[in-house]
Amino acid sequence: MPGILDYTHVTKDYGLPWSRRRVRALDSFSLSLERGEIFGFLGPNGAGKTTAIHLALGFMRPSAGAGQMLGRPFGDAKTRARVGFLAENVALYHLPAKKLLRFYGTLSRIRPERLRLRCREVLQQVELEAEADRNVERLSRGMQQRIGLAQALISDPELLILDEPTSALDPVARVAMRELLLESNRAGKTIFISSHLLSEIELICHRVAILSRGRLMKLSRTDDLLVRHDRYEIVARGVPAGSFELARHFGMPPAVSQVSIADATPQLRVLPLDANPSASSGQALGRNGRVQVTVSAASQRDALEKIWALGGQVLSVNPVRRTLEEVFLEHTNKETGA
Amino acid sequence: MKAITMMAANFLRQRRWPVLLLFAWILATAALAGNFGRGRPAEADIVFHAQHQAIYICIFSAFLAADALHTERKSRRILLLLAKAVSRAEYLLAVLAGTVVLAAAYALLSALCSIWLSARTMLPSAGIWQLLPMVVAAAMVAASLAVFLSTFLNPYFATACTLAIFGAPTLLHAQRHAGWVWLPGFPFLVQFLRFSFRAEWSPNWMSVLAAVVESALFWLLATAIFERRDIAVPVE
User: What pTM was estimated for this model as a whole?
Assistant: First the structure.
């Protein structure tokens, strides 16, 4: 079953075929968006994210491959009535906000009576009703970005394509934008969002794709990407002289707080949470200390038994969760060889 | 249709200040030709004013139309516009419609000035009303040719080529060479240069029909090329 947005081996080259400066922006890129999901599109600068978006909207044609948006080939004008788009560094005509929305609404073929209603609704959604009659030229960059989002929402689209939507927003507006996107998604919209703000993506996206040098490096559900099922984190307390014993058990020096490890070797991190700054870490841990041990899945049982044998109390055992930033760097560094 | 009207209106609105300046210039030249209302102006001056305004309108339309795509791409405003349910053919039609409306407004103001001048010289003004549709038709061809050329040329080259295509045969004709009569604009320029308030001047209405056909052809060609252009690529 085709997705709401499908790329099939899409390649895009910039420059003339015989030019030495010919650049491959996308290289046999394939991707399929499922209806109703929030999809995060990540990649370093020049990875080809914006090119992929522009191809879908028909701003340019692929050099090879093909794609479909809402079941129609890329570039179909009528289909775009069902799509909302917010460009990176949004450029708007200098009109009062309400008139501008009416302008874009008319281009989206919305009937006048419905358009009046939609203008009010989207201005409320982006919290700019008070600025409805102000020329967008005189609005702040963040407000212009929100007007940009309002024009994307004006046709109540099935698919929302957002290129760096939060780049010009302050933290408060960013939270509001996140809430708005989640609300839109609950209302059934599919959201395709390209962003550098990995924390935002991590919070709202169901799936993410990492693109590097025009190639798809990783495509996964966000949870699957962030949770490492090969490593577990054990937090325990009340281990008498715990860190020394435990460290000895795992063959590590006790005062080390963070250890780089090979795959099969467990990692030990000592957290002297209630430590007296003048005391040594060993004393502190002996009284109130808490230990956090990262072990491989294979040695998890062994570590737990050792903690219990030392009289410690296991507080939690969880699969290790990474940040999206770590995952992103891992994949992009792998590609660039850094 | 409404989308095209909206885009054409937006096109006009964006260019309102230079156009108002141009209108002020028309009034100023008319006042100059009419000796600022003092004394009776010479018939030659009034004819010169009408002829040259007609040619200026064509040049103005070519400039305006040739620059449209470039400006919109440079400002990146075209992205949000073409992300809506608007085809590139409709977009180009809106640019042409906007240019023709501006040219018509320019031509009307110019015609009113000429009528004022002719009335002061006791000349018949019927010819001005016949000249008006000719001027608008010539401006339409100039605009459509300029838009077509600007889909693959820098706007300055596009304007220069449009003016060359319009002007070169006319210059050859004036030098008693035949001129390429089938080229767009040529029959209009010849008629403008022959314009007179007297009864001996009569318009060639076939050239208006030819202008409509040529404009449609240029619009189709422009669409065929523009459909294949990467509009998101930054322009130089």
Answer: 0.82
